[in-house]
């Protein structure tokens, strides 16, 4: 009996997921060249490495974060996690302070704002 198209598609998706996670490197520093899914997997791999370095189980991290172990397990395998659970994970790993630089104003932003302020500031007194 021939395999149905949907079954073949599902098998392809599963094999493609395995290939994607196989070529992801947790030490990748240039995230600009990565897809969103790859960035999520990189973060998941980094979290897994930190967890293992701290000799903690997935259950330990989930318990510290007060969310289901299954959610954390899914995160390590796929990179999929809610933002709140991700924050709880980072906190449980003792790295919450690293999130303070995410989306923070950069030096370039500050310079641009300063220059814009200089241009809009009146340079002369108006004539009477």
Write the layout of secondary structure elements.
Elements: H1 5-23, H2 36-53, H3 58-65, H4 69-78, H5 83-92, H6 107-120
Care to describe what's here?
The protein has helices at residues 5-23, 36-53, 58-65, 69-78, 83-92, 107-120. It has a single domain, classed as lambda repressor-like DNA-binding domains (434 Repressor (Amino-terminal Domain)), CATH 1.10.260. The termini are far apart. The protein is an all-alpha fold and 128 residues long. 62% of the residues lie in helices and 0% in strands. Helix 2 crosses helix 4 and helix 3 crosses helix 4.
What characteristics describe this protein?
6 helices; 128 residues; elongated; single chain; mainly alpha; 434 Repressor (Amino-terminal Domain)
Whole-number count of domains? 1
Number of helices: 6
DSSP E strands, number: 0
* Fraction of residues in β-strands: under 5%
CATH topology: 434 Repressor (Amino-terminal Domain)
Q: What percentage of residues falls in helices of 4 or more residues?
A: 55-70%
Q: What would you call the structural class?
A: mainly alpha
CATH-derived architecture: Orthogonal Bundle
CATH top level is Mainly Alpha
Oligomeric state of this protein: single chain
Radius of gyration: 23 Å
Low-confidence stretches: none
Q: Describe the global form.
A: elongated
**End-to-end distance, in Å?**
94 Å
Summarize the entry for a quick read.
With 128 residues, this protein is mainly alpha-helical. It has helices at 5-23, 36-53, 58-65, 69-78, 83-92, 107-120. The longest helix has 19 residues, at 5-23.
